[in-house]
Amino acid sequence: MNIGVIGAGAVGMLIAAKFSQQGHEVTCYVKRESQYKLINDYGIIYNGTSVKVKAAMFPNITSHDLIIVATKQHNIDEVIEQLCLLSNKTILFVQNGMGHIEKVKKIPSQVYIGTCDHGVERKSDYTILHHGQGEINFSVGGVNALEEKDNVLSRLNSEQFPISHEPNLERILYRKLVVNCVVNPLTAIFHVKNGAILVPEMKGIAYKLTEEACMVLHMNLDEMWDEVLRVCRNTSENISSMLSDIMNGNPTEIDHMNGYLIDHNPDHVLLPSHEWVVKMVHAKEKLKGEYMLS
């Protein structure tokens, strides 16, 4: 199968490497010429092994059997603009947060929304470490998407790289949102790996964030707390995407995670923990240069 992956961060490179290892023809679309050259010269170094993957510059997207969009939320608008101009048949979005859900419906293709819970760390522009095995869950995201038995994604499922259809889109998005609203801001604020959340002093803060999120989304607290702890254990050595953004001086997705809960709160649940972590992450985004200690 001919697969295009837009975005070559940790998740994008993992997806590209795994499908290439399975014998698919994979093209990664990137924005920087330096990354373009590195991937074309060396492939993607996955857990120390070089995997052949082609790189191309965005927005020079061509037709593929499947396109997977693994960019950050703040790049979604320009990606959707490009995809609306193409005749690609099947598109899967695997973003953190909720900012893209309504936007993707205008794409005239078979569009699916997915979540990826693998523990993967980006070490460089062409190197990743896969710390924890997970899976990709997906559901219908657009009006032209096909049923499970007929779509390309279900046929790509394998034991080595599980891809599962989840008929309840809201369930998979909300489960991932709750985990992201706990793990991402805490690791970014405290500058720690995911496993640090399991320390007793951190668990209390994490529990409060989980509790507030579950009240807004009407999720089962016990079930979601177990899920948060499971993810922290399985990705204990991982650096979260939000911490990576802070470390690299990039804007975070906090407004599409905790900020989404605050803005979409019809029951007017009190969210003091989420309000504070949003402020603290935004402060960390701005505290650079003369204010930072070496």
Please tag this protein with its features.
294 residues, alpha/beta, Rossmann fold, N-(1-d-carboxylethyl)-l-norvaline Dehydrogenase, domain 2, 2 domains, eight-stranded mixed sheet, four-stranded mixed sheet, 10 helices, 12 strands
At a glance:
With 294 residues, this protein is α/β, with parallel strands linked by helices.
Textual characterization of the structure:
By secondary structure, the chain is of the alpha/beta class. It folds into 2 domains: 2-167, NAD(P)-binding Rossmann-like Domain (Rossmann fold, 3-Layer(aba) Sandwich); 171-291, N-(1-d-carboxylethyl)-l-norvaline Dehydrogenase, domain 2 (Orthogonal Bundle), CATH 1.10.1040.10. Helix content is 39%, strand content 19%. The protein contains 10 helices and 12 strands. The protein has an 8-stranded mixed β-sheet. The chain has a 4-stranded mixed β-sheet with strand order 4-3-10-9, covered by helices on one side. Strand 6 (66-69), helix 3 (76-83) and strand 7 form a beta-alpha-beta unit. Helix 5 (169-190) crosses helix 7 (221-234). The model has no long low-confidence stretch (mean pLDDT 91).
**What kind of sheet is the major sheet?**
8 strands, mixed
SSE series: EHEHEEEEHEEEEEHEHHHHHH
Tell me, rounded to a whole number, the average pLDDT: 91
CATH fold call of the largest domain: Rossmann fold
Class based on secondary structure composition and strand pairing:
alpha/beta
Shape: globular
Helix content: 25-40%
What's the N-to-C terminus distance? 48 Å
What share of the residues does DSSP label as strand, in percent? 15-25%
**Low-pLDDT segments:** none
Number of strands: 12
Highest-level CATH class of the largest domain: Alpha Beta
